[in-house]
Known about the structure:
This protein is of the alpha+beta class. It folds into 2 domains: 4-90, no CATH class; 149-342, no CATH class. The protein has helices spanning 61-69, 107-121, 126-148, 153-168, 173-183, 185-196, 202-218, 224-227, 231-249, 310-320, 324-342; strands at 4-9, 18-19, 26-31, 37-42, 54-55, 75-80, 86-90, 284-285, 287-288, 299-300. The chain is globular.
Amino acid sequence: xxxxxxxxxxxxxxxxxxxxxxxxxxxxxxxxxxxxxxxxxxxxxxxxxxxxxxxxxxxxxxxxxxxxxxxxxxxxxxxxxxxxxxxxxxxxxxxxxxxxxxxxxxxxxxxxxxxxxxxxxxxxxxxxxxxxxxxxxxxxxxxxxxxxxxxxxxxxxxxxxxxxxxxxxxxxxxxxxxxxxxxxxxxxxxxxxxxxxxxxxxxxxxxxxxxxxxxxxxxxxxxxxxxxxxxxxxxxxxxxxxxxxxxxxxxxxxxxxxxxxxxxxxxxxxxxxxxxxxxxxxxxxxxxxxxxxxxxxxxxxxxxxxxxxxxxxxxxxxxxxxxxxxxxxxxxxxxxxxxxxxx
Length: 343
């Protein structure tokens, strides 16, 4: 047995201690003397040879252990590593690093929302009463999406998409993307302007416009608004059409949203990279080859799971899928529009 490492887990009701299989690096779950729930593992498990070609693994012993025990397993803090010295590294990130202060609290908006919900709920009008319930549920969903991100970005992303879906009762990708493109033409122009000055996005902007016109042809111009969209609106349409495709033809087949939706840059400066990730591909490596590098067949691209549309997912939708920050910003604007329409 090599060196040991240990993690603090999200607490659950353990009876005694649990001895685990050593094959995949986990040795024991136990409660420490100070009451923390601890997972002890083999620090040498999973190390990749730095000189010889080594098959990589996609097996996750944590989540598989959670399935076997039928209870959620989540590492919150790395306690010790190798030599046994206390490490104390937090694994679960804070939900947001955004600084907030008194200046961020909009009392007028807070009271406006509360008054609107209460007035509709007590109106005696069944339609308005249901609207009040719906609006409050959407606010709850938005709050939960903020709490989940960034540790559970895929669930958070889906929560935000559900809010937009509910606000317009959209039925398909065209309606969903059209609704988002109409949320804020001003915001569309701001985002599009930030992207057009970055050469790395030139090809993607062209792909977005082509995708828009392909969709316009397929819908036979049923929506007059689509025909009058500006270039900025067309771009936003293409991004959210791509997100809808991922949800309906990729996420529903058991895969999460690509991790690039949380890998955005320039959020503080509100630059173009906050809205579309510069990453060019999504794949997993089957082998680690320190001497020769990648070889043909070493990479796995899971987009093949969607079948006939795999090329669209690899070469179009993936490059245009909006970041979590982009989706959050549009969702917030959509909720504000809904509040203004009710009050």
